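Researcher: Good morning. I'm working through a list of sequences from a screen, and I'd like to move beyond sequence-only analysis. For each chain I'm collecting a predicted structure so we can compare shapes side by side. This is the next one on the list. No need for commentary yet; just the structure.
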Amino acid sequence: MWRNLIPSTSNPKILMQIMAYGITTTEAFASGFTGQSRRYVLVEPGVAKILADGGYTKKSLREDLIKNARKITYEAVFSKVYGSFGPVQDTFEVELKKALNDKNSEKGKLPPWYPRFPGWENIETIPALKLVEFIICGDPARNKVQTLAGGPGTAIREIKLPARWDELMEKAGYRPLQEFLLK
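Model: Good morning. Structure tokens for this chain:
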């Protein structure tokens, strides 16, 4: 499962929040929420620049995404029990009780895209994300972010570019890669 987001903001905090929203609503394998899968976020260079110029590093962006990408516990258990890709051992009620007793299920931590109505402080949420990797790629003139939900393993391998890559790209009419690195 993947989700395309086309952010219409240059505010780095709101941009991070819309990325967290995409991560939260992109589930691995079938529709069954596990909260365990790694997410791969493809970020176009223009979006990466907004985040970097706003003070985000890979580490701080990862931390903020994990903090903000939360799912209502009841909703997560519903997805796990009735949309799971694997066997679920117990009934919805038993799974919900287990989830509500989990140390990661917390009251008062609704993600920023939910309204704050009377009683919102009592809604329990759980993290929708534990691991996230960023891949900066694509057209530097576009503003796109794509979230891919992966399994618990890792499938990223570093690609070694030639030492003269920026020089070669400049000769081909492209801007140097250095301009797009997150610090």
